[in-house]
Amino acid sequence: MVATNSDNLPEFSSATVALNSEANFSKTDTTTVHTTKIKETTFALERQVPVGIIILATTALMTLAFAGLSYVQAVFAPFFLALTLVLAFRPIGRKLVKHGAPVWLAIITTMIVLVVTFVGTVSLLVWSFTPVPVTLMRYSGRFEQTLNSLGQFLESYDIQTFDFQKLLSEIDYNTVIRLAWNVADSLSSMGGLIAIVVVALFFITIDTATLDARSKVSRTWHSDLTAALAGFEKRVRSYWIISTFFGLIVAVVDVVALQMLAIPLAWTWGVWAFVTNYIPNIGFVIGVLPPMLMALLDQGWQAMLWVALIYSLINVLIQTFLQPKLTGDVVGLSATVTFISLVLWTLVIGILGSILAVPLTLFFKALLIDADPRTRWLDVFLVSEKEVKKREAQKQYDLQRANPKAPAEVSTTLETFNQHLPHISQGNQKIKSLLRTVSKSVRGYRQAKNSNMTRSIYRRSKKK
Fold it and tell me: Which residue has the higher pLDDT, 36 or 320?
């Protein structure tokens, strides 16, 4: 039996060599193998579930999510507004820290700029709309005269005005004035909203002052989600900056034009144009109607047409040609998706949702689509055809290119293996030592056996 085991010694040696070669495999090859297996398993599971069921389940979950957000809109909307504002002003604090300023100074400076900007804008809006109801009260007789003149104009061209007269009879100028008072009172009673936003600004600014350690951990465990959130921060910052810049240009030009036409409350309508510039698609229409009505009541339909013409030229030039050219590459949403998001978020979280429609869509797009390479292709339904071609040329929809790093599970497996690799090497050394001991014992046994056989033969020959 011992001789038989000694014959099998080369098999132990080859097993040891094989174990060493497997222990020293390439990390890149293992990562590729594990990543490929995970992708194949994921695609196999996806093929087992019909696409219609996935869409139905996704729609149901989105409906529940929207219902929940609508239930907590009084808290969610101010906090999300504060979050986007902090992200827009965050470079101020980072530049101060980069130039050697202490973190507490960067936090205080950023907080002061944020509070002054937000509270100043809201205060300017409230101040500008305060005289609107009083001004409208002076045009009560002019309103009735304008409606009668419009009815006579239509009748002069043999246009049936029965339904129109019925509609006009239901329009009460006092209702318009009451609506203006309600809007002014609502703006004046925004103390609760301002308080929530300011408190949220304070805490979010402190928490986001330094994110180095948290960013490092998140990149290690889920690099795709970290990259998606970083992209959201960049896009929402660019959106706020560009929209604010062009909104100021539109407001200044509108104020100058209205003052040249001697339209009352020119500064009020300028501020209104600035605010409605944040409302996508229909912001221009909402911004031009009040000054048109004021021009009609003050000077007649000719002044109203001039206001409409000037507003159209300004907004078409800036909002149709210049602003989309800069914001299109940053936001990347198609016009249809932008309009749907406007309607949807206004229904979900109220009037503030019309201003936050684009940031909210970008945020949930980053979480639900951009954060996973397997769902990133759904981006083609949210952006324009030109943008899809551009991103496809950059291979952003390529699954292998989209996630060049190993998934978290594979990385964890490799790290665990690397931790146990020294113990495996120590085990190999012990096996080698044991094999050498066994080999020495076998050789000693062979030598002893051969010596005994030699003595036995010698004794037998001597007896003969």
Answer: 320
